[in-house]
Design goal:
With 160 residues, the chain is α/β, with parallel strands linked by helices. It contains 7 helices and 5 strands. β3, α5 and β4 form a beta-alpha-beta unit. 24% of the residues are buried.
């Protein structure tokens, strides 16, 4: 009997609300004949990855889940999906302090000439996960990226 393929989605923070959001997001992709999709939380991670220190703090716990299979990060996947739909993209950051980390990553990917800008929600991961005002704020920031900055696609700078 052939073992069913498995896709592991890892939430690098300890916020189970975010992990549940990821589970709900992948639910339409779960078919009996397709791969099993499992979402896990890094329990020892910060409540939200908002700073470089937070990102650095999850490298060891993530390394424990090492694999020989291909690994795709959510930022890389989100940006490349946006670029499949538009020539230029914008990013909605959770906080201003996240932007330098995102810019470093996009520079490493060689995509700075395709980035129109990044604008922050100025909300914490916990605030965005609660849902109170989150969608309203995302729509407002997304409109600015589209109408002022010229983004053809928008990427969230956070998995939540």
């Amino acid at each position: 009997m052939t073992r069913r393929a498995r896709i592991l989605v890892i939430n690098p923070n300890s916020n189970e609300v975010v992990t549940e959001g990821l589970r709900q997001a992948v639910l339409p992709l779960c078919y009996a004949e397709g791969p099993e999709i499992v979402c896990e939380t890094i329990a020892e991670g910060p409540i939200g990855v908002e700073t470089q220190e937070h990102a650095d703090s999850v490298t060891i716990p993530l390394r424990r889940k090492g694999t020989t299979s291909p690994v795709f990060g959510i930022a890389e996947s989100g940006v490349l999906t946006a670029l499949a739909r538009a020539d230029r993209f914008g990013v909605i950051a959770i906080k201003s302090r996240s932007i330098p980390r995102h810019i470093r990553y996009l520079r490493q990917m060689g995509l700075m000439d395709r980035l129109v800008g990044e604008r922050p929600l100025e909300m914490s991961v916990a605030e965005t996960a609660s849902g109170d005002r989150t969608l309203e704020r995302m729509i407002a920031i997304g409109r600015e990226l589209k109408e002022i900055d010229g983004a053809g696609a928008i990427v969230m700078g956070c998995a939540g």
